[in-house]
Design a protein that fits this description.
Low-confidence stretches: none
Oligomer: single chain
Number of strands: 20
Mean pLDDT: 95
Radius of gyration: 22 Å
Number of helices: 15
Strand order of the largest sheet: 1-2-6-5-3-4-7
Helix content: 25-40%
Structural class: alpha/beta
Length: 460
């Protein structure tokens, strides 16, 4: 069980003891801190909230909503929604901020409050630090009875989000509809079951088979859209003779595809394929975090643009995209960010752009995947016990590999000729992630294993 506080929000497991897990007291404290920060320079505020399909979602939503109302803040409640939908709704509502109630890819016992600014983007490090400070001090000033906030519900934003995808210039609905794709969707018992089939139908995809379509938060499998969790989707794509399969995570900001033969397109190559399509229509730069495949850099250079790496985390990718005026960016976990759509990972615009690219390819999705190199990223993690000094461990590893090029901007990234390994602590879980990429799967796995052994050795 855990409670993790960060500058972008608070995440934890439901139940247990306050300050150790995500209990009602912690939810109220953190919501009050965020609302109080919004009110520091203004008398009133407006906040958009929405949640994924988690079991605890309604409870958390009620606690957050009524805490904000108690501060005198007016709440626009989208109910069941997606992370990108809430982000866009903040702008459309001209709100002062937003809160997304989702623990993203974490299992069902987790939930979280993700905090947005008035641009519908994750709050800055400075604002996040202020929220954490206020939550710790509990210096809240609640509103008097005649100045309480209000709550309005708005269920129209799925339609608005989908219409925005249809209206995006590079989304080719006509080409998609002509292909008459048959698609299987793994909606993982969350709000993807509401948004993704509706989007596909709007794009002209008439045959949509939905797996795990009941929005009950009782995830049928580990909700992270990784190959080892998508065996049922893979099998169903083959059984149905479908053109492709689509998987999203519970809050619909990550996206991956399954080929017609049941093989994985590769979550790292979701961004690569979409970027290739966008760059073929718009010249410009790209950004991804430094744990993402080198294939994006190669595609960008082929199109005459420049590639820039960022620290891991959506807020860091967005910051770098703005600095470098990138036309497309994201993260290798299947997170697509289209800046002139909105600055946030968005599986819906990702689906629209990917299917537009696929529709212009003569053959199926497997053939489409073969346009891109077969690089392999070995993704691993080591769970940490309390009290472990990660900084000391990283310093020891840096000494061991001092002859190799090393980047310390975000954990440790070590380069070995054409291969690399990236070690960093997670912002959302008590773990060290170890990602390694090579042209060969065995090499990538061996590099990752070597570093994992180093970490375990230095922990002891």
């Amino acid at each position: 069980m855990a409670l993790i506080k960060s500058i972008s929000g608070i995440r934890g497991t439901i139940g247990g003891n306050p300050t150790e897990n995500l209990t009602p007291l912690d939810i109220v404290r953190f919501a009050a801190a965020y609302g109080s920060v919004l009110l520091e320079n203004q008398k009133t505020a407006r906040v958009v909230i929405g949640r994924d399909g988690r079991i605890s979602g309604e409870m958390v939503s009620q606690l957050v909503t009524q805490t904000l109302v108690g501060l005198g803040i007016n709440v626009v409640d989208l109910g069941l929604s997606t992370t990108p939908t809430v982000e866009m709704a903040v702008v459309w509502e001209k709100a002062d901020g937003g809160i997304i109630l989702t623990a993203s890819h974490n299992p069902k016992e987790w939930n979280a409050l993700k905090l947005l600014n008035s641009a519908g983007e994750f709050i800055s490090a400075e604002l996040g630090a202020r929220v954490l400070e206020l939550a710790a001090s509990e210096k809240f000033q609640f509103a008097s009875v005649d100045k309480l906030g209000s709550v309005t519900t708005n269920n129209s934003y799925f339609e608005k989000h989908i219409q925005a995808v249809l209206d995006y210039p590079l989304v080719n609905r006509e080409a998609i509809a002509q292909k008459q794709f048959k698609v299987v969707v793994d909606a993982i018992n969350s709000t993807g079951a509401l948004a993704v089939p509706q989007l596909l139908n709007a794009l002209g995809v008439e045959e949509v088979i939905v797996l795990n379509g009941e929005v009950n938060g009782r995830f049928a499998h580990n909700p992270e859209p990784l190959p080892e969790n998508l065996s049922a989707l893979s099998a169903e794509v083959k059984k149905q003779g479908a053109a492709l399969g689509i998987a999203v995570d519970p809050d619909v900001d990550r996206l991956c595809f399954v080929c017609e033969d049941g093989s994985m397109f590769g979550e790292e190559f979701t961004l690569v394929a979409v970027a290739d399509y966008v760059l073929s229509h718009r010249k410009g730069n790209t950004v991804s975090n430094m744990s993402s495949t080198k294939a994006l850099k190669e595609i960008t250079l082929q199109h005459g643009g420049e590639y820039f790496p960022s620290a891991v985390g959506e807020v860091n990718v967005v910051k770098k995209m703005k600095e470098m005026n990138a036309v497309i960016g994201g993260e290798g976990n299947g997170g697509i960010i289209v800046p002139d759509f909105h600055y946030g990972r968005d599986a819906l615009i990702g689906i629209g752009l990917f299917l537009s690219a696929l529709a212009q390819h003569k053959n199926g999705i497997k053939s489409f995947r073969n346009r891109y190199p077969d690089y392999f990223i070995s993704k691993n993690k080591i769970e940490l016990e309390k009290g472990i000094n990660v900084k000391e461990i990283f310093e020891q590893i840096q000494k061991k590999y001092k002859k190799q090029p090393i980047n310390t901007e975000d954990g440790l990234k070590i380069e070995f000729e054409s291969d690399w390994v990236h070690l960093r602590t997670s912002n959302t879980e008590p773990i060290i992630r170890i990602y390694a990429e090579s042209n060969f799967e065995t090499t990538a796995n061996n590099i990752a294993l070597r570093l994992m052994q180093d970490i375990k050795e230095f922990i002891q």
